[in-house]
Amino acid sequence: MRYIRPLSIEDAVGQLAGSAGMAAILAGGSDLLVRMKGGFVEPDLIIDIKSIAGLGEIRETAEGFSIGAAVPCAVLGENAALKKAWPGVVEAAKLIGSKQVQGRCTIVGNLCNASPAADSVPALVAAGARAVVAGPSGKRTIPVEAVPTAPGRTSLAKGEIIEAILLDSQAPHSGDAYLRFIPRTEMDIAVVSAGVNLTIDAAGVITAARVALGAAAPTVLLVAEAAEALIGRKLDEAALERLAKVCAGACRPIDDKRGTIEFRRKVAGVLARRAATTAYARAGGK
Amino acid sequence: MNFDPRFSGRKFTSVGTRPVRPDGVDKVTGRARYGADFNMAGQLVGRVLRSPHAHAVIRKIDTSKAEKLSGVKAVITAKDLPDLTDGDAAMYDILDNCMARTKALYDGHAVAAVAAIDARTARQALKLIEVDYEILPHVTDVDEAMQHHAPLINDTIFTEGLEQKPVKPSNVTKRSQFGHGDVHQGFGHADFIVERSFKTEQTHQGYIEPHACVASVSSDGTAELWVCTQGHFVYRQHCAQLLGMEASKLRVTSSEIGGGFGGKTHVWAEPVALALSRKAGRPVKLVMTRDEVFRASGPTSATSIDVKIGARKDGTITAAEATLRYTCGPYAGSWAEIGAMTAFACYRLDNVKTVGYEVLVNRPKTAAYRAPSAPMAAFAVESAVDELAKELGMDPVEFRIKNAAQEGTRSSYGPVYGPIGIGPTLEAVKNHAHMKAPLKKNQGRGMACGFWFNFGGQTCVDLNIGMDGSVSLAVGTVDVGGSRASLSLVAAEELGIDYSQLKAIVADTSSLGYNDMTDGSRGTFSSSMATISAARNAIKILRERAAQMWDIPVDDVVWEHGHAVAKGDKHGNLGKLSLKEIAAKSGTTGGPIAGHSELVADGAGVSFATHICDIEVDPETGAARVIRYTVVQDAGKAVHPTYVEGQYQGGAAQGIGWALNEEYIYGKDGRLQNAGFLDYRIPVCSDLPMIDTQILEIPNPNHPYGVRGVGETSIVPPLAAIANAVSNAAGVRMTHIPMSPPRILAAIEAEREG
Q1: What's the confidence (pLDDT) of residue A183?
Q2: In this complex, do A183 and B741 lie within 8 Å of one another by their Cβ atoms?
Q3: ipTM surpassing 0.85, yes or no?
Q4: Is domain B24-32+456-601 annotated with CATH 3.30.365.10?
């Protein structure tokens, strides 16, 4: 097993592209090290990206925010501007694992682990976040929801590394929120989850919305019908009922040790309702 | 040596205070040595190959490739642990459980082991061992295993305890029955009858420290074992017997213990580590992974229980009956029997009958878990008692008070009670502020009672007084909950010296006589009795030495507040002699001063507790949160109240986890799905409220200080108290533990849909 710590993204991409056998990217290590310890993976090459310039920073850009791939989730919670603009994204990142885990884990790692239950991903999808992918043939920017393709699989090609997550400045009168269900209070994996991001007009009518569900299908779901259920209405009881119903219907969950199909469907609807209520209030809706 | 164990009602100076424990600083600074912290020069890494199948014949094991791997020093299978059990069926089961002989009986059953120069080589070697399995049908569910068509786990088992010896083998190893009176007649006098069936899933003790040991067998046949255990003397006996050694040739040293709760009363890895070391000729360290702990140590039973209780309008119970089915894993046990004994132990009943069935399943061998078998029985009984109180329109506490056992009651399992604490705990609960606190929307309150026998047993203590007057106390019961502090307090009390003058240790098996293990809540009860006896023996010698120093008859010397005092007018001019002064002269007055004690601690007083719990249920998600929790329990005498409270809180915390989320989940393939703390959900800190405690002290007449065991009873009421609270909060009776969110939500929905 070889461990390297490149200083530039180009070097990292080159090493990754040229590697034989199994190569793994190490940022916080909160997934990788656990999998190695459990004997599930034995990488031939580990590329630690924490020393690459800029990857440990959150930058405020003209468009919004650029969050480097090595920024621990706890640091997201310490960035006042980001918290103000995207409280739902930050609260999702701050739900991963425990305080100790949040000191290491990253949202890019959470995304690339490609678990349908990843906490930060539904919030990022709802927020319309994009991923900057560096690869042997240069850089490209793709929507976050295009990254995971199946549990444990991503659309990244050999040699590609996600360098940063981009979040636009939040539109005026907008709000986002994320909720997940776990049987415990922390140190757990979402049984089902919902992220909602919405914008309202002066009358409180929803003009734009994105609703994403986690642990409800093989990948995080962006539920267009759920957004349609909200757009053009105030967030009244009827809209919430419809949202819950659409979300429950959109789920394609499984029965497993963490929950049943029945349970996931019902609770997906409940969480979507509750998250929408919070997002609406954050947008200034009454 | 005429030790009088009877309660004396003395006033205490040290006992009942709360000094810092002697093992505390090392534990919080990381210096304390746990099982995996021992190391020896030349030590190898041991690893175990485990069956991936729930039930399979082992046709052949080929270890030749593993043996050829560079760095591998020994590979063993069952052949390297020949059967020396000489017809002892229980020992044979232990042997077979340590290393499968002809069949793998559960997912995780050990089939081979290697010792290699490092962990990587050991892991590689395991992959090179080829096992030829013939997969058999399996059964993991308790009720399914009792069906006639169920796969047979052991075709030599015929149910014991039936009136007629059965002609066909069965997965039911034993039927046991307890009770008195005539329940049929009793139910005939009842105005109200509640009858319900309950299920509880299998749980693990969840100790944080995995099983770990270092074994070193010398070429002369003697051996040493460093191990994390609740009973190193018992481990010595079992290992010596399984390996064909004399007990005295095997020295076992117990490490600090990161939790056991009954799960470290059984050998798994230790005989394997010794066999590897014997074959390799080098020390072998064997540490289980968490996955191995869950799959292949000793969780508690899964159960299926039917309860029927009848009462007259005035609230008098006329009859009570229960049928209890407990899983034992693939080997015979007596778990349902214990459940059947404890089920109705809290009540004064004219007509009571309990029947227990021990059931074999393809799961790991059941081991003790804190008051083993009692929590599940209490869950079923106390749920039915609560429901019956509701039907009668009686307050659940008043209903229990009316029917509570008392001194002189013949218990449901046979013996007649002496002074007991069930009534006082109920009265304390009735008057507790918690019972009167208002509840909010979606919140419910539940309460329940629990009983545990408590044990005593063989105990040995050495108390040595140094020439500087400091005192070493060597005990043989492993300290699982602060007993070194408690026993130091007891010795300080008896000798009349300060706690700081004492240091207690747990001695190894070659340094002290035999001790039963720390189980049955016996550690402080029995070792404090032996400590008192040892201290009194030392005091006798101290008096003799003082008499010698003064040159007066020993009968004129008494021991008061840590000093020899000469009594009588003719000795009026003699000052007191302190323990320190007498010790300083010991070299010239007869040599070292010590007190020893070897005894069987009889008369462990039975223990009762009543718990109160408030739960908030989210009716849309089924999530249940514990809002408030109170434990009221009789301690007899709380020697170190902080550690008594710790035991109360710990039992409640484990009970909360068990009640709400912990469970073994098996797939259709018979494999355990959640062998880790991520999906086997013990509570984290933020899941629990501060658990309030109230210690009652109803002295045990059979102990000089009135001490009763306190460690186990606290886990008996929680399942029931929480189930009663959830049922009240959710408006539907919960009958399946754990009450996980999907189960609660499904119950609420079913109730809503009628």
Answers
A1: 95
A2: yes
A3: yes
A4: yes
